[in-house]
Amino acid sequence: LDSAAGQAQAKTHVEGVPLTPSEMAKDVQGLVELVGGQTAGLFRSGRGETVSPAAMPSVSTMKPLILYSYEGNQFCRLVREVFTELDIVYELRSVGKLSPRRSELAARRDDQSTQCPYLVDPNLGIEMGESKDIIQHLYTNYAKYTPPSEILQWASDVLVPYFRNFFAAVSPIQAGAGLESHAEFQQDIAQATASIERTIQSHPLVIYTYDLSPFCTEAKTILQEQLEKMSLTDEAEIHEVSLGYEWVPGLIAEGGAQKRQALFEMTGQTSLPHVFVHGQSVGGLFGDDGLIACIQDGTFANMLKSGRPMQSYDELLTDAQKQKELLDTIKTAVNQGGGGGASNTTNPMQLELF
Rounded to a whole number, what is the largest CA-CA distance in the chain? Predict the structure, then answer.
């Protein structure tokens, strides 16, 4: 900014002519574009340099996508970075000043403008002109999943391991260990465990979350995206169980600390999110066996599609009651059949049930 202001002052001093409002507006616009580009680069440092694990295998029959772009525009840059991350074959058509591509782009757009970026997808017959929509389109149709923030990945790899033992030590204390008798504590955890078991056995897809956790927000977004990709939004709804705003005292919900400790005893994990598919723990967002890893190797899709049909807790109770009544009927039939003077003829239906 100082450099640009100095150049403007030098121009005024040398030429002896003050800048006109239009010239000043151009200078301001240039500064905004410069700052915007640098800011975008700062927050996405390293993005677009390598192919992401989210990239899908290339398909030989796929036609190259067409991207109209300005070289120095930060929004165009974001889109180009996603193309690189997903290893998508595309044709770049620069629409700089005096480029003949400008009239070509204007003819394509409904508003006849030359605003960029602008995407033409011949494979799906779609054209669009907002960077946010283009990026979402690429991740939805040309990626296994939308990669979560690299800042979260860094925090998970670098910071979380240092706090893992701390969380493990704090979890039982928050749940009431030492504040009540051991028997009462164990009873509370047993009740929390039973609640978790009921939930994960009666819903195909369950996620335990904190409301303020960015890790949980990313995980929910990815889960919804996966259901849409597999066309399972009607069959497998995401069942979210919030344990409060966060794990710290005052923000965790009533009973949340007990469920957190129960999850720890069940799976060895205290952090959230925690995803379950058909009653089986998938874990958190990252990690060697977490949600991202399961999506990358296809495990998540296989678990979700091959899982048995789920029942509600009421249905589970009803089935259990029916089984108990059936066993009672069998016992009664056997006793009556072996009693003195009683007929030894066995009812065909009883025999089939037995």
Answer: 127
